[in-house]
Amino acid sequence: MQDLLQVLQCPGCLAIVEKSDNIFETTILNNNCHVNKCTICGLVYKGQFPTSCGLDKIYSAEYTHFNDGGEWKKNHYYYSAKQKLDRCKKMLNSKASNKSIRILDVGCGSGNFVSVARDLGYDAYGIDPHLPSHCQKPYLENKNLDEISTSSFNIVVLLNVAEHLVSPREFFMEVYRILANDGIVLLTCPYGNSLARKFYQKKWNHLLLDEHLLFWTPKSLSIMFSEIGFKGGKNFRIAGTPFPWGRVQDVEVQKTDVKHLNILKGVSPGSKSNFRTYITRVAQYIQSHEKTANFVRCLVHYTASGDYLEYVIAKNK
Ligand SMILES: [Zn+2]
Fold first, then answer.
1. Do residues 54 and 85 both lie within one domain?
2. Sheet of 153-159: strands edge to edge?
């Protein structure tokens, strides 16, 4: 069986592929492939999608989604997850206690987000169709969306899921079904109209991954969600991952950049492999200081200079 199939419609708005511009070339599973941008909704998507056979090759046992990020990650992750939950609760406009708010993290990975939500008192659960047995708990299950009851959650969370979907409309129709009437969806994904995507093109770290197929914008998400039936308010933020302006491989660190910061101890300049370590450490430094991090986040959002999108939409109000 072949690994790839030609995409014939925009996966977001279903416009025929002729309504999309071919913006540059990339590869997927070692095959050349167009990157398209829909002129109707603005979605950026790969011109070939993996079949079930291709998906099996992509999501092998070594898929890093289930690795724990270590202590530093937990600390910065806690604040970032808490802020996301605060924004969701505000949007729910509910005076209900956290314990009566039911949250489902779909594609929960190792369950870090669910752990933070449970620590904060929410009634939170996670599902993941690839969840290995060592990650399973009573509230983290190896399940698909179609096994979840109708109208059973107030918040559905999709962190780094929307860029992987082969059939996004079918998927989000299921999300609509499991949401309570007052429910909201929170999703995060690489930002399809980012400076990083335009500048780095096929070298953009999100595009290099075979499993990343779709690069959403607020407009493309809004069009798809309204066609599915979502009628409520929406909100979005542009963020960075982990540094505001995106990442690319194979760039050298300059000697002058690394001299004065203790956080860079152990990073030797002038080496390609150290560039990502350098950027990651600067990002960690910023993220570990909440006020500085919030300032940088506002700056990134208002200048739309980040390469990551956080999008929230309510089902009904
Ligand atoms: Zn479209």
1. no
2. 140-141, 123-127, 102-106, 153-159, 179-190, 308-314, 234-239
User: How many A from CA of 13 to the centre of ligand 1?
Assistant: 4
How many C-beta neighbours within 10 Å does residue 51 have? 15
DSSP assignment of 45-89: EESEEE-HHHHHHHS-TT-GGGS---HHHHHHHHHHHHHHHHHHH
Tell me, in angstroms, the distance from the centre of ligand 1 to residue 181's CA: 27
**Boundaries of domain holding 147:** 75-232
Q: Which DSSP state fits 202?
A: G
Residues with CB under 5 Å of ion ligand 1 are 10, 12-13, 15, 38, 40-41, 43
Each residue of 295-316: pLDDT tens digit? 888 888 888 888 899 999 999 9
Q: Is the dihedral of CA 215, 221, 224, 230 positive or negative?
A: positive
* β-pairing verdict for 31-38 and 44-46: antiparallel
Per-residue pLDDT tens digits for 224-252: 999 999 999 999 999 875 454 555 444 44
How high is the mean pLDDT of the chain? 85
User: Cα(214) to centroid of ligand 1, in Å?
Assistant: 11
162 with 103, same domain: the answer is yes
